[in-house]
Amino acid sequence: MEINKIRELIAQMTLEEKAGLLSGEDFWHTKGVERLGVPKSMVSDGPHGLRKQDEQADHLGINDSIKAVCFPAASATAASFDPDMIEKMGEALGEACQHEKLSVLLGPAVNIKRSPLCGRNFEYFSEDPYLTGVMATALIKGIQSKNVGTSIKHFALNNQEHRRMSSSSECDEKTIREIYFPAFEMAVKEAQPWTVMCSYNRINGTFASENPWLLTDVLRKEWGFEGYVMSDWGAVSDRVAGVAAGLDLEMPASGGINDRKVVEAVKAGKLDEKLVDLCCERILNIVFRYVENAKPETPWDKEAQHLQAAEVAADCMVLLKNEGGILPLNKEDDIAFIGEFAEKPRFQGGGSSHINCFKTTGAVEAAKGLKVTYARGYDVAADDAPADMIAEAAAAAKKAKVAVVFAGLPDAYESEGYDRTHMRMPESQNRLIEAVAEANPNTVVVLHNGSPVEMPWIGRVKGVLEAYLGGQAVGLAEVKVLFGDVNPSGHLPESFPIKLEDNPSYLFYGGEPAGTEYREGIFVGYRYYDKKKMDVLFPFGYGLSYTTFEYSGLKLSKDKILDTDTVTVTVTVKNTGKRAGKTVAQVYVGDVEGYVNAVRPVRELKAFRKVELQPGESKEVSFTLCKRAFATWRSEIHDWFVESGEFSIEVGDSSACLPLKAMVTVESTQKLPAHYDMNSIVMDLMKDPKAKEVIAPLISGAAAIFGDGEGGSEAANEAVTEEMSMAMMQYMPLRSMLGFSNGAVTGEMIDEMLKKMNE
What we know:
Elements: H1 3-11, H2 15-21, E1 43-45, E2 67-68, H3 74-77, H4 83-99, E3 104-106, H5 129-144, E4 149-155, E5 168-170, H6 173-180, H7 182-191, E6 195-198, E7 202-203, E8 206-207, H8 212-222, E9 228-231, H9 239-245, H10 257-267, H11 273-291, H12 302-316, E10 318-322, E11 335-338, H13 340-343, E12 356-357, H14 363-366, E13 372-375, H15 387-399, E14 402-408, H16 427-439, E15 443-448, E16 463-466, H17 474-482, E17 515-517, H18 526-532, E18 549-556, E19 560-562, E20 567-575, E21 581-591, E22 604-613, E23 618-625, E24 632-634, E25 639-641, E26 645-652, E27 660-667, H19 682-686, H20 689-700, H21 702-706, H22 714-719, H23 722-729, H24 734-740, H25 747-758
Parallel strand pairs: 1-3, 2-12, 3-4, 4-6, 5-7, 5-17, 6-9, 11-13, 11-14, 14-15, 15-16, 19-27
Antiparallel strand pairs: 7-8, 10-16, 18-20, 20-23, 21-22, 21-26, 24-25, 26-27
């Protein structure tokens, strides 16, 4: 519907009707205005499947929803590094939404994995904002190509479940802009999600649901968001403040309480009715966009999507260890599948994204017809396994050529609503893996988890396959990968630390009682481990294959650019093995020089491409880097800024394996505003060409101030060398010149220099 017609409808509404539109009718529907022909619309939880509830509605997945297809969760799909595949998955989800008359699928969730402990990490893509943004943008484009909306969430800094509805995320502007905003920004600018869901938490003391800087200044004015903002379920604190800030829709229904508060505020002159009209306009624009493009006749082939889910899951699995080429397995060998997850896999997380699957396929079922025996090994509901259960598993392992243990985290360990308290797997599973490895040295572990786990047994097993939470067809995908029908090509979207205490947020995560301080700043995940030169269990971007790849021929289109230019990075990738396979070429940028070098990461992911190659085949792959690849956020100008200097461009297949490196010099076309005073120090002045020229006479006299090492006594010359004089000089404020110069420098002279420097 044209915007003018929407405005005409709103003009015919009473204030009470308009205020009513700003909250849900019930748990999942927006309100309508029947007398004016304004329809209600239905939204549904996602983001990797439909959790549409027809009858009893709830937020945490306690009550049943319709039978649907559960695709791999974001923790898995991010590992694919394949936005094209994820976009196709989005198309499938969009078709399901059209079939079920759903206007908006609530997702994707793009919050950064700040700590392995976050209970909702399985729903989030990565520790890296660029990877998160690319994958989220692809999923949004896929879903919305079917004329169904998405709701990118949770905006913003929602990185823990502990005290999630009251905690304040205390974070500086630079960290917000460089780590926690970019995925939202990229998705809004490149995919225009129909809606944005604001988070429960406060940001530096202000609830996200009533934060005008967040919802209006940044989201709408700066990024150009065109849809409506809805609250997370129950996230509204002050509804009137929310309307003023840019929160359009409160979900779920408020029972009319907050509607009346909006009406009262308008009548009392405390809230401009034009803001209420604007919220209505944004909501109805999306409601009618869906209604006018609704296609409930769209077929939903669940069986076909089940197979698609298996294809996606197989492409997401990460081969972490493959000692002696233990994988792929031989279909003619006797294989033991051990562990309850082999029969009943854990393939999704708990809470609002929990899908009521129309079918599931475990690895035992998928392996029918092969020479596979099964032993339960552990009870997923118990932390300890009976000795006879472990003994049975060990016996099965001993008889087999290879033993495969299916392990991971139980549902109770990872869920919306609370965080993990440690990074360990259940002790029963660790004991089982140790026992099986002792019975058969040819042991492989398949992991089902939403974020990193400790692996105390890693040195005793020959293979590890990370399946993440791979959706309802994960067993089918696992068998295809284990037996070589699919060559694994996933790469880790997060670092796996050796132990929880290594994580950069360890000392501050959670926060008591009012909030959590993001003291690690921009050093999240690999940015921290690389800066600290710290060993990890498995690095960001890491993933093995059943074949091998070689990177060569790194070329840059230019070796010197302005920050307004782009540079093209070209590299040749070759499959040097005997199997067809895929690798992920990753491009990292690092600031070699620069004023802010001390507080910048060693390297940051700025581009990637999944490349499929036949044995012996080579492909040349190109990437284009623009200003944002080299820029940092500067709070003094509240904008992105490139410090002139040299930048490294490294290419390889993980953050820790970057065999190719080239340098580019970037010249900034922007000058930071400078203001110097009596407390400005020499080191900072010397970095500004204009200021350096002005104070040059003072610098040349540094030796006279401190002593030049000549003419004095031997002891004096040893006490203050020329090098020491200059080193001390760099930290001196201008005011110090007055005292140290013995009258050679006057206040009038410094005032005159400051005047010239600040012109």
